[in-house]
Amino acid sequence: MRVLLTIFPATSHLYSVVPLAWALQSAGHEVVVASHSGVVDPGVIGNIGAAGLTAVSLGTPDELSPALGAHTGDAKPDRPSLGFDPNEPEESGGWRTARSILASMFSLYYPAPERQGGRRPVLDNLVDFARAWRPDLVLWDPLMLAAPIAARVSGAAHARLVWGMDNVAVIHDRTKRELADPRSELTEHPWLSWFGPMLERYGLELDDEMLLGQWTLDLTQSRMRHPLDLTHIPVRRVPYTGAAALPDWLHARPERPRAVLTLGVSRRKIFGKYSGFPMREFFESVSALDVEVVATLNNEQLAAVGKVPDNVRTVEYVPLNQVLPTSSAIIHHGGGGTFAAAVAHRVPQLVVPLVMWDEMVTARYVADMGAGLVADPAALDVDGLHKQLVRLLEDPSFQLGARGLYEEMLAAPAPTDVVPLLERLTAERR
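That's the Putative O-glycosyltransferase sequence above. Prediction below.
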């Protein structure tokens, strides 16, 4: 069968779908991955072709920056965010903030005519490709809501591939309850203002499938998922962290414990000016420890740090799948890909959750499973971080917790195990 994967234009979103795409290709299916040119163009770290997959460009990402502006801002911990805790009372309002921000992001697929600037909208490019290529199955990123329209128009079966907490489904479920509540002042779904014109362009109407797919493939750990009434298929998240030659310094095991500090591939761009992490002071604090710290820093971050201690190695980029097998701890901001890589290699985690999506949920889960510790990004204290790192390296209980997370990951079906089910569901739903 022909399978079209559509992704939000960010490296971390691409990396989450690569193992399943490989599994489909290995089973003999034709697979293409469609997105904005930023993850299609050769020479870009994290491009689709570098992962051994066929790429289809949907146009330039010119609309992406303003759409993300309200979301990322200056990346300070107290900014408005797409992240919210589904377990908090609905009255807390965080999910409504996320609902509003999502509306501004989704509009990038079909901007108002005055904002198109002569460029064809992503929606039209994707629909045209789907009509021409005629996929049997479309697997789509929860943030790529042009995809279900292309699937419906081309007659393909379609499903979401969820890479984190299912915030879109939670928001949609709560919005439907709000619309049904006679006390509510809400009279129509807030997303109709941007989704309506997209649907009308192709003679479609809003229904649950257009927001949630015909079924949902879920890469998150089982105990992290929010209970939702969905046709739900768990899939093991096999971490793909990029392809690169193995550097010489990783050929042998380190002589002392190794700790990795990373903000993730996509996050370093967003948090370049404000990471929420006191790099310079932290490096000074670990200079006297008998550890090796590997920090993935871009040039802007490295310039802000200044002189680096002898036991700190800085690199622009190294795939986590290369460095984590010889590491004893990892410090990160709670991104799903980094979390999954740490789980796969059974590495204890110190999470400093700067919230974009579900980082607080991830951090709490790591702590609850005894696989690591959490630092409050709004009140970072270098002495406290220093003590937490030492505890993570010296207390063997965190290794046991990391093993527990790993075993839970193994309990989910591997991507290769899911392929026959996708074949059957596609045949039923096309």
